[in-house]
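During the reporting period the student researcher (J.K.) took over the structure-prediction task from the postdoctoral fellow and processed the backlog of single-chain submissions. One of the processed entries is reproduced below for the supervisory committee.
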Amino acid sequence: MVIKPSEFTSASILELMDLIEEAGVPRGVVNVVTGFGPEVGEPLVTHPKVAKVAFTGGEAAGRRVYQAAAASFKRVTLELGGKSPNIVFDDADLDAAVNGAISGIFAATGQTCIAGSRLLLQESVHDAFMERLVETAAKARMGDPQDFETQVGPVTTPAQYQKVLDYIGVARAEGAVCVLGGGPAEADEGGGKWFVKPTIFTGVNNAMRIAQEEVFGPVLSVIPFRDEDEAVAIANDVLYGLAAGVWTQSLARATAMAKRLRAGTVWINTYRAVSMTSPFGGFKASGLGRENGLAGIEGYLETKSVWVNTAADAGNPFVMKLAGGG
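J.K. obtained the following structure tokens:
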């Protein structure tokens, strides 16, 4: 295995390599190379000794990896972006759903591919839910991500920080209404640079860029819906299909929604629950293949059929043999 980390996150992988060596894994089994994509990533993807490529990152980079690997027919797993819907019906436990909506978008400062960045609220509970949501989200504690009391940390890089602020500007220009946050955090709130206030927009429709494009930051778009059919239509009407959340006390509705939603993971009355035993991956522009679970292991295996003839008579060489049952 050869790991090529993001140029922004190499330190953690290098620390992991020290632990791998300490655990007694023989040298050369797990390796790491660092650097930028064009200089290091592309030669690694195209190297003739690499048979399988697993990439986690953005849609544009994933497309380049897929194209480069296709030239030599390498197997590829892609875990890319998302614009995941978190859907709340009027029969949901609203307190639990509020916590799930906040966890879905503001945990990890919204910098997760599975972030529930589109909150779909049934019209009959929209106003009551928003009141609770804004009140709770406004209490989020920003600060040092190494402090266990911190709930919202900084955006990872200056470029991403500016991108998040730019998307906030796009949302306002499109006519979305900012009901919380909407800009950089004050120094006494975040304790440093690159902090964006947890931000919530209402008055969003699914055609807006803020509802279609991945922000990868603490920005939530709230979209109302009338009934189950409209919720499904809005949820599926994006390029991505990585994850979705459904909040309801109806088991029949929950199972029906799980079947109809075009997403690789569907959470019912929870969000961001993960397990190494559960396959993870997306539909559409969210990627190819699955990580974790048996499906993740099978992605690294080849299937081979082996036929052994034990009969003394080889039979007619001009006739194809058909295996029969028995």
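The committee noted the following: DSSP finds eleven helices and 14 strands in the chain.
J.K. will present the remaining backlog at the next meeting.
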